[in-house]
Amino acid sequence: MLWSDPENEPPKELRDTQDMLRRLSILMALAMVLAMLVLGIL
């Protein structure tokens, strides 16, 4: 890697999309755990 190499960074839209997907997957995992608890209690 040379200091003159361009930054290997994805465009802002792609990063935003990845962040959104990450948050969505965390939310889905929490929802699944919550559903399992609710179904276990019932």
Explained architecture:
This protein has 42 residues and is mostly helical. The protein is built from 1 helix and no strands. It has one helix at 12-41. The longest helix is centred in the middle third of the chain and has 30 residues, at 12-41. The termini are far apart. Pfam families: MmpB (PF26627). InterPro entries: MmpB-like.
Secondary structure blueprint with pairings:
Blueprint: H1 12-41
Please sum up the structure shown.
The chain crosses the membrane at residues 20-41. This protein is mainly α and 42 residues long.
Tags for this entry?
42 residues; mainly alpha; rod-shaped; transmembrane
**Rg estimate, integer Å:** 19 Å
Order of helices and strands: H
Low-confidence stretches: none
**What percent strand?**
under 5%
Rough shape?
Answer: rod-shaped
The largest β sheet comes out as: none
What's the β-strand tally?
0
Average predicted confidence as pLDDT: 88
Amount of helix? over 70%
User: Could you give the distance between the termini?
Assistant: 58 Å
> Structural class, judged by helices and strands?
mainly alpha
Q: Count up the helices.
A: 1
